[in-house]
């Protein structure tokens, strides 16, 4: 499956994505809101898991490519989280993104996420899509807000896969319902 926006192509993974994914995965600035950076081998495992999850679930995170140049700039998509420990709001479908530093501040995350929200609500018929991040990740929270997602403080949680005393353990949860999505589209 391929989704297109004005400036982006959201497409399946290919072997050529490993090098830029690996470069992105070792960048401490890109990975500062993740528990740790990833080696090239770990990036390969992540990519293989995303491919397998797409085959099993029909959705998962996939590459974001610039239409103008064909350059890989990160990944985005919808996913059903499958951690070893459940999230307090499971089951759910999340929208998420991670972009190379060179792609920051250009609206690509919002543009790609909007396409995935449209796919989730209009094609898959989902009733709700969530997004979550470390409480300190203000840039991603701004994207969530631009998408019309809503945070309620009582939904904030400690991520079950992060040690409780780690600075990235506190997480915020944003939600968007299909009704709110449809209302925003008709304005």
UniProtKB/TrEMBL annotation:
InterPro entries: Acyl_CoA_acyltransferase, GNAT_dom, N-acetyltransferase. Pfam families: Acetyltransf_3. GO terms for molecular function: acyltransferase activity. Residues 8-179 form the N-acetyltransferase domain. It comes from the Bacteria. Keywords: Acyltransferase, Transferase. Transmembrane segments: none annotated. The keyword Transferase applies. Its EC number is 2.3.-.-. This is GNAT family N-acetyltransferase. It comes from Roseibium aestuarii.
